[in-house]
Write a sequence for this structure.
């Protein structure tokens, strides 16, 4: 049996799936940020003429998925699965988008790690020969997340300085057995770690140990070190969590250097008053589908490690005083 | 007019400063809802001890409009009703004294929710 597992947690694909196309849609705040020009579509406001923010988020995800499919010129019956997820209860944004898209649908939840998780699972489906082409996509929306996880948006409450700003955005990729484009060569599925952080306004700290653990296992499994990558990018620890993850990795003997950054740090600049940085599964999705894909295609990056990081709590578990479990999933993308 | 406005401005402002300090110096698990309840119960206790009444006399709306003023009203109403009606007044008096505020909140909340739809 030709097992593709390497080490404890990593798989290396025998026929690495190709990223045929990428598409990103964002809200106005993301459009005004430093990566604004790298996105395919920028909405003028967060609701875009819909009746609720929840419907707007679902339409945004649908637009990202349709945008990625259209670029490939593939017919819909050539795409075998749609893998999608988001942050809302019962992943309604993905469910409702799947209702319109009409493809066989696998809904997934990994909180903010969902993009990396969907890329890993989609690649496994293709390399395992269960699918020819797969579309993956995730979304998040500032106002729907704020309403579900924190406080009513009408209240206008003050945000803690360690709090992250949920990105309004949706990103999508089409993965294929063959074609031209960057390839997903390996994936490391993370363990769920919990060091007892209970503060929902400090999710970066809750996720940092899990991200560090996944990076350590990834490097160990493949016998690589950070120098083997042009970019190692987590999504999304933001400023507080990124500093913590660097510290944990340094103590474990892994000096990450300047190649290690975070999607939640890149997407906004300090003048945008977002406090610790960005979060939301849309964040790593649009940063990857926009900025990182462009740099992979242009050849600026040869090998990138994307580590999606998820805070696996629910509003109920937080109110009941439970701590926040964190997870990190890593995928390697090579030009 | 200024002899009323200035004390109201200063006392009302200082009460808000206490609220801001409660937000900034406590853990984020101490939510705005906790601040609200702290102010109402704080006003009730200070009112019952006879400490909030002089503040309302001095600062007027500066002390009666913040949430602590609502708590003070509850305590004051309950104590006055006990004098008139006996011990049952402790239960009825607080809400009677703050009936205008409660009824106005219900009425205007209802009117606004009937008139407007949420945008988002």
């Amino acid at each position: 049996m030709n097992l593709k597992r390497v080490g404890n947690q990593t798989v290396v694909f025998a026929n690495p799936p190709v990223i045929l196309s990428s598409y990103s849609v964002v809200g106005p705040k993301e459009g005004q940020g430093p990566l604004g020009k790298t996105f395919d579509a920028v909405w003028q406001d967060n609701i875009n003429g819909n009746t609720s923010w929840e419907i707007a988020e679902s339409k945004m995800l649908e637009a990202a998925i349709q945008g990625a499919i259209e670029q490939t010129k593939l017919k819909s019956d050539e795409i075998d699965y749609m893998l999608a997820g988001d942050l809302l209860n019962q992943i309604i944004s993905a469910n409702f988008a799947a209702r319109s898209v009409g493809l066989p649908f696998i809904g997934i939840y990994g909180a903010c790690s969902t993009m990396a998780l969907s890329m890993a699972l989609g690649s496994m489906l293709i390399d395992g020969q269960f699918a020819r082409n797969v579309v993956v996509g995730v979304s998040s929306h500032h106002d729907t997340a704020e309403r579900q996880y924190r406080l009513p948006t009408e209240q206008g409450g003050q945000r803690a300085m360690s709090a992250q700003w949920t990105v309004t955005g949706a990103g999508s990729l089409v993965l294929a057995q063959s074609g031209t484009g960057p390839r997903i060569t390996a994936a490391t599925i993370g363990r769920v770690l919990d060091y007892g952080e209970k503060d929902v306004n400090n999710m970066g700290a809750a996720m940092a140990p899990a991200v560090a653990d996944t990076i350590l296992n990834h490097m160990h499994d493949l016998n690589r070190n950070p120098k083997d990558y042009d970019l190692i990018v987590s999504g999304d620890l933001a400023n507080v969590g990124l500093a913590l993850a660097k510290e944990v990795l340094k103590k474990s003997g892994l000096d990450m250097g300047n190649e290690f950054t975070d999607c939640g740090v890149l997407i906004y600049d300090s003048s945008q008053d977002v406090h610790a940085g960005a979060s939301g599964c849309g964040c790593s999705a649009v940063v990857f589908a926009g900025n990182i894909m462009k740099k992979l295609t242009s050849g600026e990056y040869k090998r990138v490690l994307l580590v999606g990081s998820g805070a696996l709590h629910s509003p109920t578990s937080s109110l009941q005083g439970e701590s926040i479990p964190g997870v990190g999933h890593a995928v390697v993308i090579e030009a | 007019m200024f002899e009323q406005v200035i004390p109201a401005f200063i006392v009302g402002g200082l009460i808000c400063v206490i609220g801001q300090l409660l937000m900034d110096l406590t853990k984020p698990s101490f939510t705005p809802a906790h601040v609200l309840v702290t102010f109402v119960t704080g006003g009730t206790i200070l009112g019952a001890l006879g400490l909030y009444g002089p503040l309302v006399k001095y600062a007027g709306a500066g002390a009666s409009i913040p949430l602590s003023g609502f708590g003070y009203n509850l305590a004051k109403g309950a104590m006055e009703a006990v004098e008139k009606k006996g011990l049952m007044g402790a239960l009825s008096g607080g809400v009677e004294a703050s009936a205008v505020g409660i009824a106005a909140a219900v009425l205007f909340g209802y009117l606004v929710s009937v008139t407007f739809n949420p945008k988002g």
Observations:
- Chain A is about 35% helix and 25% strand.
- The first strand of chain A starts at residue 5 and ends at 6.
- Chain A touches chain B at residues 46-47, 52-53, 143, 151, 153-155, 157-158, 160, 162-163, 198-202 (CB under 8 Å).
- The CA atoms of residues 87 and 264 of chain A lie 16 Å apart.
